[in-house]
């Protein structure tokens, strides 16, 4: 580390980037069980933000694990490193003024607080996608829950590994109880005042 010479003081600032884009960067962190609807919500939200001229980027669990985190498994240590790397990447996007949407199980409060600490608490908007386990299992197109219940997958969140509900999320959504469009509108009503530069 002694040979690293940061150039942060010479780079354009976050304020410069946000002024160029006409928006504020924010981290929208969706947490919930596999099959809860995080990715579906993220995709629908991205489309609505795009329609409003807001630049955004989705970071999704499957995509990240097939790329930047393809060397990580699902042990507690690997789960922590997975979230740490995601948060570091997300911080770069947010600091560039981009609305960043993360869709990750992130099963513990400790992991989510670590992510918030890296990104910055003021920029971290946590959404708990609180869809019942039974519904998540019904939606399971990959058959992962069935495999976990047969003992074929170890450390599977919700079955053989715990999921800690967020202590104080900014918002809670149950995708089994509310139509997708209504869920997206609720999220938009909460985040748009934080994104719009003129406010």
Sum up the structure in keywords.
199 residues, alpha/beta, Rossmann fold, 5-stranded parallel sheet, 13% strand
Please explain how this structure is put together.
- Its EC number is 2.7.1.25.
- It holds the Pfam family APS_kinase.
- The active site is at residue 106.
- The protein is α/β, with parallel strands linked by helices.
- The protein has a domain at 24-132 and 165-191: Rossmann fold.
- The chain is built from eight helices and five strands; from the N terminus they run H-E-H-E-H-H-E-H-E-H-H-E-H.
- A five-stranded parallel beta sheet has the order 2-3-1-4-5, sandwiched between helices.
- Helix 2 (38-51) packs across helix 8.
- The model has no long low-confidence stretch (mean pLDDT 90).
Report the portion of residues in β strands: 5-15%
Question: Nearest-angstrom radius of gyration?
Answer: 17 Å
CATH class of the domain at 24-132 and 165-191, named Alpha Beta
Largest sheet features: 5 strands, parallel
Helical stretch count?
8
Gap between N and C termini: 41 Å
Please state how the strands of the largest beta sheet are arranged side by side: 2-3-1-4-5
Overall geometric form: globular
CATH homologous group name of the domain at 24-132 and 165-191 = P-loop containing nucleotide triphosphate hydrolases
The helix content, as a percent range, equals 40-55%
CATH architecture of the domain at 24-132 and 165-191: 3-Layer(aba) Sandwich
Uncertain runs with pLDDT below 50, 5 residues or more? none
Oligomeric state of this protein: single chain
Structural class: alpha/beta
Estimate the mean pLDDT confidence.
90
**Could you give the order of the helices and strands?**
HEHEHHEHEHHEH
CATH topology title of the domain at 24-132 and 165-191: Rossmann fold
| Quantity of strands, as a count | 5
Family: Belongs to the APS kinase family.
Keywords: ATP-binding, Kinase, Nucleotide-binding, Phosphoprotein, Transferase
InterPro entries: APS, APS_kinase_dom, P-loop_NTPase, Sulf_AdTrans/APS_kinase
GO molecular function: adenylylsulfate kinase activity; ATP binding; sulfate adenylyltransferase (ATP) activity
């Amino acid at each position: 580390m002694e040979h690293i010479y940061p150039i942060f003081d010479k780079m354009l600032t976050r304020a410069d980037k946000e002024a160029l884009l006409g928006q504020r960067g924010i981290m929208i962190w969706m947490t919930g069980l596999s099959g809860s609807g995080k990715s579906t919500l993220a995709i629908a939200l991205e489309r609505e933000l795009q329609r409003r001229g807001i630049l955004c980027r989705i970071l999704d669990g499957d995509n990240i694990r097939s790329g930047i985190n393809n060397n990580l498994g699902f042990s507690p240590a690997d789960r922590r490193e997975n979230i740490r790397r995601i948060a570091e990447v997300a911080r770069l996007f947010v600091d560039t003024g981009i609305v960043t949407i993360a869709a990750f199980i992130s099963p513990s409060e400790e992991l989510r607080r670590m992510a918030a600490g890296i990104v910055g608490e003021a920029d971290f908007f946590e959404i708990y996608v609180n869809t019942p386990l039974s519904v998540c299992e019904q939606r399971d197109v990959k058959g992962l829950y069935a495999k976990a219940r047969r003992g074929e997958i170890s450390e599977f969140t919700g079955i053989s590994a715990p999921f800690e509900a967020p202590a104080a999320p900014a918002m809670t959504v149950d995708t089994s109880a509310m139509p997708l469009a209504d869920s997206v509108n609720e999220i938009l009503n909460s985040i748009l005042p934080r994104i719009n530069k003129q406010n």
